[in-house]
Amino acid sequence: MGRSFKPGPSGKGLSHCRRNHARPLCYEHNFVLSLWLGEYPKYTGSFLILVLILCLVQALKTPRSTIYHATGHILRSNIMVGSVLCAAFPLAYLLLKLGGNPESVFWAANISMIASEFVSIFILKRYINYSITSYLFNIHGRCLLVSILAAALLCFMQRLFEPGLMRVIIISISSVIIVGFLAYTIGINAHLRAGLKRTIQTRLKRK
After folding, report:
1. Rounded to whole angstroms, how far apart are CA atoms 73 and 62?
2. What is the DSSP letter of 164?
3. CB-facing half-sphere around the CA of 81: CA atoms within 13 A
């Protein structure tokens, strides 16, 4: 216990990188699925979006899992977090039993994944001295704000073009630029921006 910890950029960086890939797929899933599969089942598009959301939440968990393994405190985390994740099975069964559509299974998976995220954050407090409020604001809060702003801008851009390959390319390139800009200006704090800037300048000088 006694060890101090400050939220770093790892989780945010991984989440922002995955968001660059996920967002164009979310917006253009109909075109991509038609190009890939031709005709596809009714709920395939919804399944794709929900799985991508699941992956984005999972990206926030990865650096924290590394801390658990590095400190050797994995038993309690694996049992409690694993139990919450397994709750997706009875929850999915309940939703389907109540008349939910096939998407309910993935909604259950997302709900359990988000719940396990908070459980993991509070368990980590037992071993590492850090501010949960600061962690939630700097990691989850900033990532959520970047997601909302990027979604609004890309949604607006999507309406400017007709569906097709050209729109997919434009949305994909725009996603990289918009998410990259928002991640740099909003997704990280001034200290991390300065460190990132120094790292880029150092590598450019080496070349």
Report:
1. 15
2. S
3. 22
pTM here?
0.74
3-state secondary structure (DSSP) of residue 129:
strand
Q: For residue 110, which of 158, 49, 151, 199 has the smallest C-alpha distance?
A: 49
| Neighbour tally for 127: CB within 10 Å | 18
In whole angstroms, give the CA distance from residue 84 to residue 179. 31
Q: Are 92 and 108 in contact (CB under 8 A)?
A: yes
How far is residue 128's CA from residue 134's CA, in Å, rounded to a whole number? 14
* Residue 86 burial (CB count, 10 A): 12
Q: Which candidate, 79, 139, 85, places its Cα nearest to that of 113?
A: 85
For the chain, 207 residues long, give each residue's pLDDT as a single digit of tens: 445 445 444 445 545 555 556 777 888 888 888 888 888 888 888 888 898 888 888 877 777 777 777 777 778 888 888 899 999 999 999 999 999 888 999 999 999 999 998 998 888 888 888 888 888 888 888 888 888 898 899 889 888 988 888 898 998 899 888 888 888 888 887 887 888 788 888 887 776
